[in-house]
Amino acid sequence: MDKVIECIPNFSEGRDKEVIEKIIQTLRCRDNIKLLDYSSDEDHNRTVVTFIGTPEAMVGAITDFAEKIYENIDMREHSGGHPRMGALDVVPFVPVKGVEIEECIEIAKSVGAILGEKFNIPVYLYEDAATSLTRQNLASIRKGQYEGFFEKIKQTEWKPDFGPEEVNLKGGCAAVGVRFPLVAFNVNLGTNDINVANNIAKVVRHIGGGLRFVKAMGVSLEERNIVQISMNLVNYEKTAIYRAFEMVRMEARRYGVHVVGSEVVGLVPMDALINTAEYYLQIEDFSKEQILERRIWE
Amino acid sequence: MDKVIECIPNFSEGRDKEVIEKIIQTLRCRDNIKLLDYSSDEDHNRTVVTFIGTPEAMVGAITDFAEKIYENIDMREHSGGHPRMGALDVVPFVPVKGVEIEECIEIAKSVGAILGEKFNIPVYLYEDAATSLTRQNLASIRKGQYEGFFEKIKQTEWKPDFGPEEVNLKGGCAAVGVRFPLVAFNVNLGTNDINVANNIAKVVRHIGGGLRFVKAMGVSLEERNIVQISMNLVNYEKTAIYRAFEMVRMEARRYGVHVVGSEVVGLVPMDALINTAEYYLQIEDFSKEQILERRIWE
After folding, report:
1. Which of B7, B243, B288, B292 to substitute to test the interface with A, most A CBs within 10 Å?
2. pTM (2 decimals)?
3. What is the least distance, in Å, from the CA of B267 to any CA of chain A?
4. Which residues of B form the catalytic set?
5. What is the 3-state secondary structure (H, E, C) of A247-293?
6. What ipTM score was computed for the predicted complex, to two decimals?
Protein backbone atom coordinates (compact mmCIF):
# COMPACT_ATOMS: atom_id res chain seq x y z
CA MET A 1 0.00 0.00 0.00
CA ASP A 2 1.60 3.27 -1.14
CA LYS A 3 -0.96 5.37 0.71
CA VAL A 4 -2.20 4.36 4.15
CA ILE A 5 -4.89 5.87 6.36
CA GLU A 6 -5.60 4.61 9.85
CA CYS A 7 -9.17 4.59 11.14
CA ILE A 8 -10.12 4.08 14.79
CA PRO A 9 -13.94 3.90 14.93
CA ASN A 10 -15.71 3.47 18.29
CA PHE A 11 -19.13 1.86 18.48
CA SER A 12 -21.58 1.56 21.37
CA GLU A 13 -21.57 -2.17 22.13
CA GLY A 14 -18.99 -3.77 24.40
CA ARG A 15 -20.89 -6.71 25.90
CA ASP A 16 -22.70 -8.79 23.25
CA LYS A 17 -19.89 -10.82 21.64
CA GLU A 18 -22.12 -12.03 18.83
CA VAL A 19 -23.08 -8.51 17.75
CA ILE A 20 -19.48 -7.31 18.10
CA GLU A 21 -18.24 -10.12 15.86
CA LYS A 22 -20.91 -9.42 13.21
CA ILE A 23 -19.76 -5.80 13.08
CA ILE A 24 -16.02 -6.57 13.07
CA GLN A 25 -16.54 -9.20 10.37
CA THR A 26 -17.27 -6.42 7.84
CA LEU A 27 -13.63 -5.30 8.10
CA ARG A 28 -12.11 -8.74 7.54
CA CYS A 29 -10.97 -10.15 4.19
CA ARG A 30 -11.43 -6.86 2.36
CA ASP A 31 -9.03 -5.78 -0.37
CA ASN A 32 -6.65 -3.04 0.82
CA ILE A 33 -8.02 -3.06 4.37
CA LYS A 34 -6.18 -4.58 7.32
CA LEU A 35 -7.80 -4.98 10.73
CA LEU A 36 -5.07 -4.30 13.32
CA ASP A 37 -6.88 -4.48 16.64
CA TYR A 38 -10.20 -4.22 18.44
CA SER A 39 -11.02 -4.25 22.13
CA SER A 40 -14.34 -4.15 23.96
CA ASP A 41 -14.93 -2.74 27.42
CA GLU A 42 -17.94 -4.10 29.31
CA ASP A 43 -18.14 -1.20 31.77
CA HIS A 44 -17.96 1.32 28.97
CA ASN A 45 -20.19 -0.92 26.82
CA ARG A 46 -18.10 0.20 23.90
CA THR A 47 -15.68 -1.25 21.34
CA VAL A 48 -12.64 0.52 19.87
CA VAL A 49 -11.43 -0.75 16.48
CA THR A 50 -8.17 0.01 14.70
CA PHE A 51 -7.76 -0.70 11.02
CA ILE A 52 -5.69 0.66 8.16
CA GLY A 53 -6.27 0.83 4.45
CA THR A 54 -5.85 2.77 1.24
CA PRO A 55 -7.87 5.98 0.79
CA GLU A 56 -9.92 4.29 -1.96
CA ALA A 57 -10.91 1.38 0.29
CA MET A 58 -11.91 3.47 3.32
CA VAL A 59 -15.39 4.69 2.35
CA GLY A 60 -16.65 1.25 1.31
CA ALA A 61 -15.29 -0.35 4.49
CA ILE A 62 -16.90 2.20 6.79
CA THR A 63 -20.20 1.97 4.90
CA ASP A 64 -20.48 -1.80 5.42
CA PHE A 65 -19.25 -1.45 9.01
CA ALA A 66 -21.86 1.25 9.73
CA GLU A 67 -24.65 -0.78 8.16
CA LYS A 68 -24.08 -3.68 10.58
CA ILE A 69 -23.85 -1.24 13.50
CA TYR A 70 -27.15 0.47 12.69
CA GLU A 71 -28.84 -2.93 12.18
CA ASN A 72 -27.69 -4.30 15.51
CA ILE A 73 -27.36 -1.47 18.04
CA ASP A 74 -30.30 0.49 19.47
CA MET A 75 -29.28 3.60 21.39
CA ARG A 76 -32.61 3.66 23.23
CA GLU A 77 -31.40 0.60 25.13
CA HIS A 78 -27.75 1.60 25.55
CA SER A 79 -26.01 2.45 28.80
CA GLY A 80 -22.31 2.55 29.64
CA GLY A 81 -19.62 4.47 31.47
CA HIS A 82 -18.12 6.23 28.45
CA PRO A 83 -19.67 9.39 26.94
CA ARG A 84 -21.40 8.59 23.61
CA MET A 85 -23.82 10.20 21.21
CA GLY A 86 -24.53 7.38 18.78
CA ALA A 87 -24.31 3.70 17.82
CA LEU A 88 -21.34 4.47 15.58
CA ASP A 89 -20.02 7.09 17.96
CA VAL A 90 -16.80 8.47 16.46
CA VAL A 91 -14.88 7.81 13.26
CA PRO A 92 -11.43 9.45 13.31
CA PHE A 93 -9.17 9.17 10.26
CA VAL A 94 -5.40 9.50 10.73
CA PRO A 95 -2.92 10.03 7.87
CA VAL A 96 -0.20 7.39 8.25
CA LYS A 97 1.75 7.10 5.02
CA GLY A 98 1.88 9.10 1.80
CA VAL A 99 -1.37 10.89 2.61
CA GLU A 100 -1.99 14.54 3.47
CA ILE A 101 -4.50 15.79 6.03
CA GLU A 102 -6.53 17.27 3.13
CA GLU A 103 -7.10 13.86 1.56
CA CYS A 104 -8.32 12.51 4.91
CA ILE A 105 -10.72 15.45 5.23
CA GLU A 106 -12.22 14.60 1.83
CA ILE A 107 -12.76 11.03 3.00
CA ALA A 108 -14.29 12.21 6.28
CA LYS A 109 -16.74 14.33 4.27
CA SER A 110 -17.65 11.42 1.99
CA VAL A 111 -18.26 9.21 5.02
CA GLY A 112 -20.28 11.98 6.70
CA ALA A 113 -22.48 12.31 3.60
CA ILE A 114 -23.12 8.55 3.48
CA LEU A 115 -23.97 8.31 7.19
CA GLY A 116 -26.31 11.28 6.74
CA GLU A 117 -28.02 10.27 3.51
CA LYS A 118 -27.96 6.47 3.50
CA PHE A 119 -28.46 5.88 7.23
CA ASN A 120 -30.30 9.09 8.15
CA ILE A 121 -27.85 10.00 10.95
CA PRO A 122 -26.95 13.59 11.96
CA VAL A 123 -23.17 13.91 11.49
CA TYR A 124 -20.66 16.38 12.98
CA LEU A 125 -17.20 16.83 11.50
CA TYR A 126 -14.53 17.36 14.19
CA GLU A 127 -10.85 18.23 14.80
CA ASP A 128 -9.01 18.91 11.53
CA ALA A 129 -12.22 18.25 9.56
CA ALA A 130 -14.32 20.65 11.69
CA THR A 131 -16.39 23.30 9.90
CA SER A 132 -16.19 25.73 12.83
CA LEU A 133 -13.93 26.36 15.83
CA THR A 134 -16.60 25.16 18.30
CA ARG A 135 -16.64 21.77 16.56
CA GLN A 136 -12.91 21.07 16.74
CA ASN A 137 -13.10 19.53 20.19
CA LEU A 138 -14.87 16.15 20.25
CA ALA A 139 -15.83 16.56 23.92
CA SER A 140 -17.68 19.81 23.14
CA ILE A 141 -19.64 18.13 20.33
CA ARG A 142 -20.53 15.09 22.42
CA LYS A 143 -21.50 17.11 25.51
CA GLY A 144 -25.05 16.18 26.57
CA GLN A 145 -24.63 12.78 24.95
CA TYR A 146 -27.32 10.81 23.08
CA GLU A 147 -30.00 11.74 25.59
CA GLY A 148 -29.19 15.46 25.47
CA PHE A 149 -29.03 15.73 21.69
CA PHE A 150 -32.79 15.81 21.21
CA GLU A 151 -32.63 19.39 22.54
CA LYS A 152 -29.06 20.33 21.56
CA ILE A 153 -29.63 19.61 17.85
CA LYS A 154 -32.33 22.30 17.70
CA GLN A 155 -29.78 25.06 18.43
CA THR A 156 -28.52 26.82 15.30
CA GLU A 157 -24.88 26.35 16.30
CA TRP A 158 -25.42 22.57 16.55
CA LYS A 159 -27.05 22.08 13.15
CA PRO A 160 -25.39 18.90 11.80
CA ASP A 161 -22.83 19.04 8.95
CA PHE A 162 -24.62 16.15 7.22
CA GLY A 163 -27.93 14.29 7.60
CA PRO A 164 -31.26 15.19 9.18
CA GLU A 165 -31.72 17.94 11.73
CA GLU A 166 -33.17 15.55 14.25
CA VAL A 167 -31.65 12.70 16.20
CA ASN A 168 -32.03 9.20 14.74
CA LEU A 169 -33.83 7.42 17.58
CA LYS A 170 -32.11 4.08 17.06
CA GLY A 171 -28.70 5.21 15.76
CA GLY A 172 -28.22 8.56 17.52
CA CYS A 173 -25.67 10.94 16.02
CA ALA A 174 -22.09 10.45 14.83
CA ALA A 175 -18.83 12.41 14.84
CA VAL A 176 -16.43 11.98 11.92
CA GLY A 177 -13.03 13.59 12.15
CA VAL A 178 -9.42 13.78 11.06
CA ARG A 179 -6.49 13.99 13.42
CA PHE A 180 -2.75 13.55 13.51
CA PRO A 181 -1.39 10.28 15.02
CA LEU A 182 -1.52 10.62 18.79
CA VAL A 183 1.26 9.38 21.09
CA ALA A 184 0.19 8.38 24.61
CA PHE A 185 3.29 8.90 26.71
CA ASN A 186 3.53 8.78 30.52
CA VAL A 187 6.44 9.81 32.72
CA ASN A 188 6.85 8.25 36.17
CA LEU A 189 8.25 10.29 39.06
CA GLY A 190 10.10 9.15 42.17
CA THR A 191 7.51 10.49 44.62
CA ASN A 192 4.02 9.57 45.79
CA ASP A 193 2.97 13.22 46.09
CA ILE A 194 0.08 13.73 43.65
CA ASN A 195 0.39 17.50 44.10
CA VAL A 196 3.81 17.39 42.51
CA ALA A 197 2.39 15.48 39.52
CA ASN A 198 -0.57 17.83 39.20
CA ASN A 199 1.63 20.92 39.37
CA ILE A 200 4.00 19.61 36.71
CA ALA A 201 1.11 18.50 34.46
CA LYS A 202 -0.39 21.98 34.69
CA VAL A 203 2.71 23.78 33.42
CA VAL A 204 3.73 21.26 30.80
CA ARG A 205 0.39 21.19 29.01
CA HIS A 206 -0.84 23.64 26.41
CA ILE A 207 -3.71 25.16 28.36
CA GLY A 208 -1.36 25.92 31.27
CA GLY A 209 1.16 27.82 29.14
CA GLY A 210 3.21 24.75 28.27
CA LEU A 211 3.88 22.92 25.04
CA ARG A 212 1.47 23.55 22.16
CA PHE A 213 0.52 19.89 21.42
CA VAL A 214 0.63 18.37 24.91
CA LYS A 215 -2.35 17.36 27.03
CA ALA A 216 -1.31 16.25 30.53
CA MET A 217 -2.67 15.23 33.91
CA GLY A 218 -1.27 13.91 37.17
CA VAL A 219 -2.11 10.29 38.08
CA SER A 220 -1.37 8.19 41.19
CA LEU A 221 0.06 4.72 40.58
CA GLU A 222 -1.10 3.33 43.94
CA GLU A 223 0.42 -0.15 43.66
CA ARG A 224 3.86 1.29 42.88
CA ASN A 225 3.51 4.15 45.36
CA ILE A 226 4.57 6.72 42.78
CA VAL A 227 2.89 9.36 40.64
CA GLN A 228 2.82 9.81 36.88
CA ILE A 229 2.44 12.61 34.36
CA SER A 230 0.03 11.07 31.85
CA MET A 231 0.31 12.84 28.48
CA ASN A 232 -1.26 12.82 25.06
CA LEU A 233 1.08 14.23 22.45
CA VAL A 234 -1.33 15.23 19.71
CA ASN A 235 1.30 16.29 17.19
CA TYR A 236 4.59 14.47 17.75
CA GLU A 237 6.19 16.21 14.76
CA LYS A 238 5.74 19.68 16.20
CA THR A 239 6.02 18.79 19.88
CA ALA A 240 8.55 15.95 19.98
CA ILE A 241 8.47 13.21 22.62
CA TYR A 242 11.90 14.14 23.95
CA ARG A 243 10.83 17.76 24.41
CA ALA A 244 7.85 16.80 26.57
CA PHE A 245 10.06 14.36 28.49
CA GLU A 246 12.83 16.89 29.15
CA MET A 247 10.32 19.52 30.20
CA VAL A 248 8.80 17.16 32.79
CA ARG A 249 12.29 16.36 34.05
CA MET A 250 13.20 20.03 34.24
CA GLU A 251 10.03 20.93 36.15
CA ALA A 252 10.46 17.98 38.53
CA ARG A 253 13.79 19.44 39.65
CA ARG A 254 11.91 22.20 41.44
CA TYR A 255 10.64 19.52 43.84
CA GLY A 256 13.90 17.57 44.04
CA VAL A 257 12.10 14.72 42.28
CA HIS A 258 13.63 12.43 39.67
CA VAL A 259 12.14 10.73 36.63
CA VAL A 260 12.13 7.00 37.40
CA GLY A 261 10.76 5.75 34.11
CA SER A 262 8.29 6.30 31.30
CA GLU A 263 5.89 4.34 29.14
CA VAL A 264 4.51 4.50 25.65
CA VAL A 265 0.90 3.28 25.60
CA GLY A 266 -0.34 1.60 22.44
CA LEU A 267 1.01 2.26 18.98
CA VAL A 268 3.66 4.88 18.24
CA PRO A 269 4.88 6.02 14.81
CA MET A 270 8.48 4.97 14.23
CA ASP A 271 9.49 8.54 13.34
CA ALA A 272 8.55 9.77 16.82
CA LEU A 273 11.17 7.49 18.41
CA ILE A 274 13.77 7.88 15.65
CA ASN A 275 13.54 11.64 16.12
CA THR A 276 14.22 11.15 19.84
CA ALA A 277 17.32 9.05 19.11
CA GLU A 278 18.51 11.73 16.67
CA TYR A 279 18.19 14.38 19.36
CA TYR A 280 20.07 12.59 22.11
CA LEU A 281 22.82 11.29 19.82
CA GLN A 282 23.06 14.74 18.16
CA ILE A 283 22.89 13.08 14.74
CA GLU A 284 23.45 15.48 11.85
CA ASP A 285 21.64 15.05 8.52
CA PHE A 286 19.90 11.76 9.16
CA SER A 287 17.54 10.57 6.44
CA LYS A 288 14.69 8.19 7.16
CA GLU A 289 15.81 6.34 4.03
CA GLN A 290 18.71 5.03 6.13
CA ILE A 291 16.39 2.84 8.17
CA LEU A 292 17.05 -0.70 6.94
CA GLU A 293 13.47 -1.90 7.54
CA ARG A 294 12.01 0.96 5.55
CA ARG A 295 14.05 -0.20 2.54
CA ILE A 296 12.87 -3.76 3.03
CA TRP A 297 9.21 -3.02 3.63
CA GLU A 298 8.50 -0.26 1.15
CA MET B 1 8.92 -11.92 2.97
CA ASP B 2 8.74 -13.55 6.41
CA LYS B 3 12.46 -14.28 6.43
CA VAL B 4 14.96 -11.80 5.08
CA ILE B 5 18.72 -12.08 4.57
CA GLU B 6 20.83 -9.19 3.37
CA CYS B 7 23.79 -9.87 1.10
CA ILE B 8 26.51 -7.31 0.30
CA PRO B 9 28.79 -8.89 -2.32
CA ASN B 10 31.82 -6.99 -3.60
CA PHE B 11 33.23 -7.68 -7.06
CA SER B 12 36.44 -6.49 -8.73
CA GLU B 13 35.18 -4.19 -11.46
CA GLY B 14 34.39 -0.54 -10.85
CA ARG B 15 35.13 1.08 -14.20
CA ASP B 16 33.50 -0.77 -17.12
CA LYS B 17 29.84 0.26 -16.91
CA GLU B 18 28.76 -2.34 -19.45
CA VAL B 19 30.27 -5.23 -17.50
CA ILE B 20 28.92 -3.87 -14.22
CA GLU B 21 25.39 -3.69 -15.64
CA LYS B 22 25.59 -7.24 -17.02
CA ILE B 23 26.49 -8.48 -13.56
CA ILE B 24 23.90 -6.39 -11.67
CA GLN B 25 21.22 -7.46 -14.15
CA THR B 26 21.31 -11.00 -12.69
CA LEU B 27 19.82 -9.63 -9.44
CA ARG B 28 16.94 -7.74 -11.07
CA CYS B 29 13.42 -9.10 -11.57
CA ARG B 30 14.05 -12.22 -9.51
CA ASP B 31 11.33 -13.65 -7.29
CA ASN B 32 11.98 -12.93 -3.61
CA ILE B 33 15.11 -10.90 -4.31
CA LYS B 34 15.22 -7.10 -4.08
CA LEU B 35 18.23 -5.09 -5.22
CA LEU B 36 18.62 -2.18 -2.77
CA ASP B 37 21.78 -0.45 -3.90
CA TYR B 38 25.06 -0.74 -5.78
CA SER B 39 27.94 1.67 -6.10
CA SER B 40 31.16 1.46 -8.08
CA ASP B 41 34.44 3.15 -7.21
CA GLU B 42 36.81 3.81 -10.10
CA ASP B 43 39.91 4.23 -7.92
CA HIS B 44 39.16 1.02 -6.08
CA ASN B 45 38.02 -0.59 -9.35
CA ARG B 46 35.38 -2.35 -7.30
CA THR B 47 31.59 -2.47 -6.95
CA VAL B 48 29.65 -3.00 -3.73
CA VAL B 49 26.14 -4.40 -4.09
CA THR B 50 23.38 -4.58 -1.47
CA PHE B 51 20.40 -6.83 -1.97
CA ILE B 52 17.94 -8.68 0.23
CA GLY B 53 15.92 -11.83 -0.22
CA THR B 54 14.50 -14.95 1.31
CA PRO B 55 16.90 -17.71 2.37
CA GLU B 56 15.54 -19.95 -0.41
CA ALA B 57 16.23 -17.36 -3.12
CA MET B 58 19.80 -16.51 -2.01
CA VAL B 59 21.80 -19.42 -3.44
CA GLY B 60 20.24 -19.17 -6.90
CA ALA B 61 20.77 -15.42 -7.03
CA ILE B 62 24.42 -15.61 -6.03
CA THR B 63 25.05 -18.46 -8.49
CA ASP B 64 23.80 -16.44 -11.47
CA PHE B 65 25.57 -13.33 -10.18
CA ALA B 66 28.86 -15.25 -9.81
CA GLU B 67 28.54 -16.78 -13.27
CA LYS B 68 28.42 -13.35 -14.93
CA ILE B 69 31.33 -12.17 -12.78
CA TYR B 70 33.57 -15.10 -13.72
CA GLU B 71 32.65 -14.71 -17.40
CA ASN B 72 33.51 -11.00 -17.47
CA ILE B 73 36.30 -10.29 -14.99
CA ASP B 74 39.89 -11.45 -15.38
CA MET B 75 41.98 -10.97 -12.24
CA ARG B 76 45.19 -11.15 -14.29
CA GLU B 77 44.29 -7.73 -15.67
CA HIS B 78 42.86 -6.20 -12.49
CA SER B 79 44.36 -3.35 -10.52
CA GLY B 80 42.76 -1.02 -7.96
CA GLY B 81 43.25 0.69 -4.62
CA HIS B 82 41.21 -1.72 -2.51
CA PRO B 83 42.61 -5.04 -1.24
CA ARG B 84 41.08 -7.97 -3.18
CA MET B 85 41.71 -11.67 -3.69
CA GLY B 86 39.23 -12.51 -6.46
CA ALA B 87 36.75 -11.42 -9.10
CA LEU B 88 33.87 -12.10 -6.72
CA ASP B 89 35.87 -10.92 -3.75
CA VAL B 90 33.62 -11.20 -0.68
CA VAL B 91 30.08 -12.42 -0.11
CA PRO B 92 28.81 -11.54 3.38
CA PHE B 93 25.35 -12.65 4.49
CA VAL B 94 23.57 -10.72 7.24
CA PRO B 95 20.48 -11.98 9.10
CA VAL B 96 17.88 -9.21 8.92
CA LYS B 97 14.47 -10.59 9.79
CA GLY B 98 13.21 -13.90 11.19
CA VAL B 99 16.53 -15.62 10.44
CA GLU B 100 19.18 -16.94 12.82
CA ILE B 101 22.92 -16.77 12.27
CA GLU B 102 22.92 -20.58 11.88
CA GLU B 103 20.64 -20.45 8.84
CA CYS B 104 22.92 -17.86 7.23
CA ILE B 105 25.93 -20.09 7.89
CA GLU B 106 24.21 -22.96 6.06
CA ILE B 107 23.60 -20.66 3.09
CA ALA B 108 27.22 -19.44 3.18
CA LYS B 109 28.37 -23.08 3.02
CA SER B 110 26.05 -23.86 0.11
CA VAL B 111 27.36 -20.83 -1.76
CA GLY B 112 30.95 -21.79 -0.90
CA ALA B 113 30.38 -25.30 -2.29
CA ILE B 114 28.91 -23.93 -5.54
CA LEU B 115 31.76 -21.42 -6.06
CA GLY B 116 34.24 -24.22 -5.39
CA GLU B 117 32.67 -26.98 -7.47
CA LYS B 118 30.85 -25.20 -10.29
CA PHE B 119 33.30 -22.34 -10.82
CA ASN B 120 36.50 -23.99 -9.58
CA ILE B 121 37.30 -21.17 -7.13
CA PRO B 122 39.12 -21.64 -3.76
CA VAL B 123 36.71 -20.40 -1.08
CA TYR B 124 37.34 -19.28 2.51
CA LEU B 125 34.53 -19.00 5.05
CA TYR B 126 34.94 -15.98 7.36
CA GLU B 127 33.56 -14.23 10.46
CA ASP B 128 30.65 -16.17 11.98
CA ALA B 129 30.96 -18.83 9.25
CA ALA B 130 34.71 -19.28 9.81
CA THR B 131 36.03 -22.83 10.34
CA SER B 132 38.96 -21.66 12.48
CA LEU B 133 39.87 -18.65 14.61
CA THR B 134 42.49 -17.46 12.12
CA ARG B 135 39.81 -17.21 9.43
CA GLN B 136 37.39 -15.02 11.35
CA ASN B 137 39.04 -11.80 10.27
CA LEU B 138 38.55 -11.02 6.58
CA ALA B 139 41.69 -8.86 6.50
CA SER B 140 43.80 -11.84 7.66
CA ILE B 141 42.34 -14.06 4.96
CA ARG B 142 42.83 -11.49 2.21
CA LYS B 143 46.35 -10.55 3.28
CA GLY B 144 48.73 -10.95 0.31
CA GLN B 145 45.82 -10.43 -2.07
CA TYR B 146 45.31 -12.16 -5.44
CA GLU B 147 48.99 -11.94 -6.33
CA GLY B 148 50.15 -13.37 -3.00
CA PHE B 149 47.70 -16.28 -2.93
CA PHE B 150 49.67 -18.39 -5.38
CA GLU B 151 52.14 -18.99 -2.52
CA LYS B 152 49.78 -18.52 0.47
CA ILE B 153 47.36 -21.24 -0.65
CA LYS B 154 50.15 -23.85 -0.43
CA GLN B 155 50.38 -23.40 3.35
CA THR B 156 48.42 -25.99 5.33
CA GLU B 157 46.68 -23.35 7.41
CA TRP B 158 45.39 -21.64 4.23
CA LYS B 159 43.91 -24.74 2.60
CA PRO B 160 40.55 -23.52 1.23
CA ASP B 161 37.26 -24.55 2.84
CA PHE B 162 35.83 -25.34 -0.61
CA GLY B 163 37.18 -25.72 -4.14
CA PRO B 164 40.60 -26.49 -5.57
CA GLU B 165 43.85 -26.05 -3.65
CA GLU B 166 45.22 -23.72 -6.26
CA VAL B 167 44.26 -20.19 -7.28
CA ASN B 168 41.90 -19.87 -10.24
CA LEU B 169 43.99 -17.73 -12.59
CA LYS B 170 41.08 -15.79 -14.01
CA GLY B 171 38.72 -15.68 -11.00
CA GLY B 172 41.15 -15.71 -8.06
CA CYS B 173 39.76 -16.76 -4.67
CA ALA B 174 36.63 -15.78 -2.76
CA ALA B 175 35.61 -15.19 0.86
CA VAL B 176 32.08 -16.08 1.93
CA GLY B 177 30.94 -15.07 5.40
CA VAL B 178 28.19 -14.31 7.84
CA ARG B 179 28.06 -11.27 10.05
CA PHE B 180 25.68 -9.26 12.18
CA PRO B 181 24.33 -5.98 10.72
CA LEU B 182 27.02 -3.34 11.16
CA VAL B 183 26.29 0.23 12.20
CA ALA B 184 28.75 2.86 10.98
CA PHE B 185 28.52 5.64 13.56
CA ASN B 186 30.79 8.67 13.84
CA VAL B 187 30.97 11.19 16.69
CA ASN B 188 32.27 14.72 16.00
CA LEU B 189 34.26 16.59 18.64
CA GLY B 190 34.65 20.33 19.19
CA THR B 191 38.41 20.35 18.66
CA ASN B 192 40.84 20.05 15.76
CA ASP B 193 43.37 18.09 17.83
CA ILE B 194 43.74 14.68 16.17
CA ASN B 195 45.59 13.40 19.24
CA VAL B 196 42.44 13.82 21.31
CA ALA B 197 40.45 11.82 18.75
CA ASN B 198 43.11 9.11 18.54
CA ASN B 199 43.36 8.80 22.32
CA ILE B 200 39.59 8.50 22.72
CA ALA B 201 39.32 6.00 19.86
CA LYS B 202 42.00 3.86 21.48
CA VAL B 203 40.17 3.48 24.80
CA VAL B 204 36.65 3.15 23.39
CA ARG B 205 37.45 0.30 21.02
CA HIS B 206 37.62 -3.37 21.92
CA ILE B 207 41.33 -3.93 21.32
CA GLY B 208 42.20 -1.00 23.60
CA GLY B 209 40.17 -2.32 26.55
CA GLY B 210 36.94 -0.62 25.54
CA LEU B 211 33.58 -1.91 24.38
CA ARG B 212 33.43 -5.46 23.07
CA PHE B 213 31.82 -4.75 19.66
CA VAL B 214 33.34 -1.38 18.81
CA LYS B 215 36.03 -0.66 16.23
CA ALA B 216 37.17 2.96 16.30
CA MET B 217 39.71 5.36 14.87
CA GLY B 218 40.40 9.08 14.99
CA VAL B 219 39.83 11.06 11.79
CA SER B 220 40.42 14.73 10.90
CA LEU B 221 37.56 16.55 9.17
CA GLU B 222 39.81 19.17 7.58
CA GLU B 223 37.12 21.28 5.93
CA ARG B 224 35.20 21.62 9.23
CA ASN B 225 38.36 22.02 11.31
CA ILE B 226 37.22 19.36 13.79
CA VAL B 227 38.05 15.73 14.53
CA GLN B 228 35.86 12.67 14.58
CA ILE B 229 35.74 9.28 16.28
CA SER B 230 34.82 7.00 13.38
CA MET B 231 33.29 3.76 14.67
CA ASN B 232 31.99 0.46 13.39
CA LEU B 233 29.52 -1.09 15.82
CA VAL B 234 29.67 -4.74 14.83
CA ASN B 235 26.93 -5.91 17.19
CA TYR B 236 24.48 -3.15 18.00
CA GLU B 237 22.38 -5.46 20.17
CA LYS B 238 25.21 -6.21 22.58
CA THR B 239 27.01 -2.88 22.32
CA ALA B 240 24.25 -0.32 21.87
CA ILE B 241 24.75 2.91 19.92
CA TYR B 242 23.99 5.08 22.95
CA ARG B 243 26.62 3.25 25.02
CA ALA B 244 29.36 3.95 22.48
CA PHE B 245 28.14 7.55 22.22
CA GLU B 246 28.10 8.14 25.97
CA MET B 247 31.51 6.55 26.36
CA VAL B 248 33.01 8.90 23.76
CA ARG B 249 31.37 11.85 25.53
CA MET B 250 32.66 10.70 28.90
CA GLU B 251 36.23 10.25 27.64
CA ALA B 252 36.15 13.63 25.85
CA ARG B 253 35.57 15.34 29.20
CA ARG B 254 39.15 14.52 30.16
CA TYR B 255 40.24 17.00 27.47
CA GLY B 256 37.50 19.55 28.14
CA VAL B 257 36.11 18.71 24.70
CA HIS B 258 32.42 18.54 23.80
CA VAL B 259 30.54 16.35 21.37
CA VAL B 260 29.32 18.66 18.60
CA GLY B 261 27.42 16.13 16.54
CA SER B 262 27.32 12.62 15.15
CA GLU B 263 26.42 10.79 11.97
CA VAL B 264 25.06 7.44 10.95
CA VAL B 265 26.60 6.30 7.68
CA GLY B 266 24.50 4.13 5.38
CA LEU B 267 21.75 1.83 6.55
CA VAL B 268 20.89 1.27 10.20
CA PRO B 269 18.46 -1.28 11.67
CA MET B 270 15.42 0.44 13.18
CA ASP B 271 15.91 -1.42 16.47
CA ALA B 272 19.31 0.19 17.00
CA LEU B 273 17.72 3.66 17.10
CA ILE B 274 14.54 2.61 18.93
CA ASN B 275 16.74 1.10 21.64
CA THR B 276 18.52 4.45 21.95
CA ALA B 277 15.21 6.31 22.34
CA GLU B 278 14.15 3.76 24.99
CA TYR B 279 17.33 4.41 26.96
CA TYR B 280 17.17 8.20 27.00
CA LEU B 281 13.43 8.33 27.67
CA GLN B 282 13.79 5.60 30.33
CA ILE B 283 10.88 3.72 28.74
CA GLU B 284 9.76 0.68 30.74
CA ASP B 285 8.47 -2.46 29.01
CA PHE B 286 8.41 -1.24 25.44
CA SER B 287 7.50 -3.83 22.83
CA LYS B 288 8.59 -3.51 19.22
CA GLU B 289 5.01 -4.48 18.33
CA GLN B 290 4.03 -0.96 19.38
CA ILE B 291 5.76 0.52 16.34
CA LEU B 292 2.93 1.53 14.03
CA GLU B 293 4.90 0.89 10.84
CA ARG B 294 5.79 -2.61 11.92
CA ARG B 295 2.07 -3.38 12.16
CA ILE B 296 1.47 -1.93 8.74
CA TRP B 297 4.37 -3.54 6.97
CA GLU B 298 4.47 -7.01 8.45
Report:
1. B292
2. 0.78
3. 4
4. 82
5. HHHHHHHHHCCCEEEEEEECCECHHHHHHHHHHHHCECCCCHHHEHH
6. 0.76
